[in-house]
Design brief:
alpha/beta, 8 strands, EF_Hand_1_Ca_BS, M28 family peptidase, signal
């Protein structure tokens, strides 16, 4: 009887340990779902109707409307209690006029971050460009709701989700840098300044860049299948990043990944045309999230009423889930 009792207790203990491990895994999965759910179409819409309003005058680099835009972003991060990696209350990485090759006045990137709990020196960057093309020759404002107001407000919601997790004791193991870059429309200047002149965090410590540039609309190719997003660059430097991206999507979101523009022979050369490229050229793995172009691209008609906010919510949650996985996995992803 004693031997039977010992065997029974041992069996129960093993079963209990297995259940505990499964519960821990389930808890981690549930946390990602829980905080992704705080990214909502309603909040994205509210922010974008301000950010892509006439008040911001098309956010042309170095102009008054762009200054209003960066202050909007700063105020948002301060209201959430998300810190700057530069100094308390200083969210602007100043870029002098001389850097813009006579294309713009002095401008600034906006930076905020959440410090990692276990590996704070390893950085996940989530980026989008804050600028647009301003006012056209007829005095019409190019609001840039999709380009790239959609990516900008997505980052704000992603940042808020990570902050809520941190406030509840579930902060990311690695640090997250929320990077809003200026001067993209005139030549990727803001991201180039960050990577080539003044990286706030060492590039060798930067694990990956998830770059969001236009995720609020549907292009003509997908009019009958709106549940998609173009992915560019995910397999260029790290097969592991590509596989993580695929697995995260299948597990949490399950939208169609279109790799059309990831082809090295793609004549549009989108891989070289957004801010992720300045990270990629420094051997930092990247993913570029993109909905493709449309008839309102770089026109005054790119307005917030044309954004499909349920899609914007889904795509923003996808980026959040991917960033969550990269920030919390045991080992940092490896270059091929």
């Amino acid at each position: 009887m004693k031997r039977l009792s010992v065997l029974l207790c041992t069996s129960l203990l093993i079963a209990s340990c297995g259940t505990s491990q499964n519960n821990q895994k389930q808890d981690k999965d549930d946390l990602s779902v829980t905080y992704a759910a705080t990214i909502t179409s309603e909040e994205l819409k509210e922010a974008l109707y301000t950010y892509a309003s006439d008040e911001f005058e098309g956010r042309k680099t170095g102009e008054p409307g762009q200054k209003k835009a960066v202050n909007f972003l700063k105020d948002h991060y301060e209201s959430l209690g998300i810190e700057s990696p530069i100094a308390k209350g200083d969210y602007f990485q100043d870029i002098p006029e001389s850097f813009f090759s006579k294309k713009a006045k002095a401008s600034e990137n906006v930076v905020a971050y959440i410090k990692g709990t276990e590996k704070p020196d390893e950085i996940i960057v989530v980026s989008a460009h804050l600028d647009h093309i301003g006012v056209n020759g007829n005095g019409n404002i190019n609001n840039g709701a999709d380009d790239d107001g959609s990516g900008t407000v997505a980052i704000l919601e992603i940042a808020e989700a990570f902050k809520k997790a941190a406030d509840n004791g579930h902060g990311p193991k690695r640090s997250i840098l929320f990077l809003h870059v200026t001067g993209e429309e005139i030549g990727l200047f803001g991201s180039r300044y960050y990577t080539d002149v003044d990286p706030i965090f060492p590039l060798e410590n930067t694990v990956a860049d998830l770059n969001i540039d236009m995720i609020g609309r549907v292009d003509k190719k997908h009019e009958n299948n709106r549940n998609y997003v173009y992915l560019i660059g995910s397999d260029k430097l790290s097969t592991e990043l590509h596989n993580i991206s695929e697995d995260v999507n299948k597990k949490y979101v399950n939208i169609d990944f279109d790799y059309k523009y990831n082809d090295d022979k793609d004549p549009n050369r989108f891989y070289y045309r957004s801010d992720h490229y300045n990270f990629a050229k420094n051997n930092i793995p990247v993913i570029f999230y993109f909905n493709g172009t449309h008839d309102d691209y770089h026109r005054p008609s790119d307005t917030p009423d044309k954004i499909e906010y349920d899609l914007l919510e889904t795509r923003a949650r996808l980026v959040f889930h991917t960033a969550w996985e990269l920030a919390n996995r045991k080992e940092r992803i490896k270059l091929d």
